[in-house]
Amino acid sequence: MEAVEREHEKIWASSRKTGTIDATQNIIDQLRRARESIQNDPASAQVTLAKLQAPVKASFDDMTGSLKTTRGGQNNYQKALDKLFRDKPLPSSEIDALTQHSNLINRAVYLHLLREGLFDVASRLQDEASQRADQQRDRQQANGLDVSTEHPLGLDQGLPEDMLHKFQVMHHILDELRSHHNLQPAMDWAEMNSEELQARGSNLGFELCRLQYARLLLDGRHDGVLSMDSIMHALQYAQAAFRPFQRQYSHEIYELMGAVAYFSNLDESPYHARLNTTSAWNDVALSFTREFCALLELSADSPLYIAATAGAIALPPILKVQAIMKTKRAEWTSQGELQVETPLPPTYQYHSIFVCPVSKEQSTDQNPPMMMPCGHVVCQDSLTRLSKGSKFKCPYCPTESSPAQATRIIL
Amino acid sequence: MAEATTQLKADDHLLLDQPLLRLPLELQRRTFKQSQIKIDHEQKKTTELLRNAAKTANSASPDDTIKSLDAIIQRMENLKRDLETLNEEEQSLHEQSAKRIRHLQELYEIPSLTDVKYENWARTRLDRLIVDYLLRAGYSDTAAALAESKNIQDLIDLDTFKQCHKIADSVRGGSTTEALRWVARNKDSLKKLLEKTASDKNAVVPAVTPKVSQLEFELRFQEYIEILRRHRTQDTARFEAIMHVQKHLAPHAGAFPDQYRVTAGLLAADPSDPSECYREYFSPARWTYLSDLFVDTHHQIFNLPIRPLLHVALSAGLSALKTPACHSSLNPSSAATDGHEHAKPMFAPTSSSNHIGNSLCPICSTELNELAKNVPYAHHTKSSVEEDPLMLPNGRVYGRERLEELERKNMRISGTSRDTDDERGKDDKRGRTIKDPVTGDKYPWERLKKVYIT
Question: What is the pTM of this model?
Answer without folding.
Answer: 0.85
